[in-house]
Amino acid sequence: MKDIFGKALLDFYHGNYTEDIITSTQISDEDELPLPYLFRSYNDLPILEQKALKLCQGDILDVGCGSGLHSLYLQEKGLKVKAIDSSKGAIEVAKKRGVLNAENHALLDETGTYDTILLLMNGTGIFQTLNDVPHYLRHLKSLLNENGQILIDSSDIKYMYEDDDGGFWIDTNASYYGELDYFLSYKGENETPMKWLYLDFNTLLTACKAAGLNCELILEGQHFDYLAKLSLNA
Predict the structure, then answer these.
(1) Under a CB-based contact definition with an 8 Å cutoff, are residues 90 and 111 in contact?
(2) Which one of 3.30.70.1350, 3.40.50.150, 3.30.470.20, 2.40.50.140 gives the CATH number of domain 44-179+197-232?
(3) pLDDT per residue as tens digits for the range 54-101
(4) Which of 51, 96, 201, 221 could join 225 in a cystine, given CB atoms 3.0 to 4.6 angstroms apart?
(5) Rounded Cα distance, 149 and 167, in Å
(6) For 211-222, what is the mean pLDDT?
(7) Dihedral angle of Cα 142, 145, 147, 148, to the nearest 10 degrees
(8) How far apart are CA 68 and CA 72, in angstroms?
(9) Residue-by-residue DSSP string for 12-81
(10) Could you give a GO molecular-function term held by this entry (predicted)?
């Protein structure tokens, strides 16, 4: 990976903001991801993210921390947070912004244990494909302290396949409809395409049961999005 995401965050942090990240998938046209959105404050967060932050407790792991916006809020509340991201540039920005404990590595390389694990801004995306979900859930489960929780959000993107007649053009012989090829570009440079997973709640619930995790729907958003809480079975 070229870490285009990290380069964009660094540009914005250093005052070199001239354009936004461009994203697209195999089912959607190019769209802008505004860099200021990645540096927003608590009051500008979607209600699902605000709710998740309010539920955080104990030792916290912020997965895919980006610019560190969630970690910074939690630190200000006096909570102990470790932030991780696979983007080297993102971690550099998070540290410069004041995140006290930030490390550049993937979720599967994490070995600590936590009371709260936070995966926001479509947290299921990191799972990449439906087939990989059990592996990630087992690993997340191994990182939980007793009575710990995983707070994760996602969206059911079935609506993106709806036609003008109200039907759906999903190919039932293809991969799960929430598996997307994610394309990202910035200042004329293209990132290596990556897999990104949007997981509907019922599918997440089924996967959690198989992994020995409780899965509770905490809150639903206004556009097919939701926040879920995963915990160890009693």
Answers:
(1) no
(2) 3.40.50.150
(3) 999 999 999 999 999 999 999 999 999 999 999 999 999 999 999 999
(4) 221
(5) 37
(6) 96
(7) -70
(8) 6
(9) HHTT-----EEEEETTEEEEEE-GGGGG--GGGS-HHHHHHHHH--SEEEEET-TTSHHHHHHHHTT-EE
(10) methyltransferase activity
By CB neighbour count within 10 A (0-12 exposed, 13-18 middle, 19+ buried), where does 212 fall? exposed
Q: With 70 as the cut, is the pLDDT of residue 106 above it?
A: yes
* Residue 176 identity (one-letter amino acid): Y
Domain ranges of the chain: 44-179+197-232
Can you tell me the distance from the alpha carbon of 80 to that of 101, in angstroms, rounded to the nearest whole number? 9
3-state helix, strand, coil in the chain (%, to 5): 35, 30, 35
Query: What residues does 231 pair with on adjacent strands?
Result: 149, 214
With beta carbons less than 8 A apart as the criterion, state whether 193 and 128 touch. Answer: no
Residue 231 is classified by DSSP as E
Q: Go through 107-137 and write b for each residue having 16 or more CB atoms within 10 A of its CB, e for each that does not.
A: beebeeebbbbbbbbbbbbbbbebeebeebb
The answer to whether the beta carbons of residues 75 and 97 sit under 8 Å apart is no
196 pLDDT above the threshold of 80: yes
**Residue closest to 101 by CA, chosen among 156, 149, 61, 157:** 61
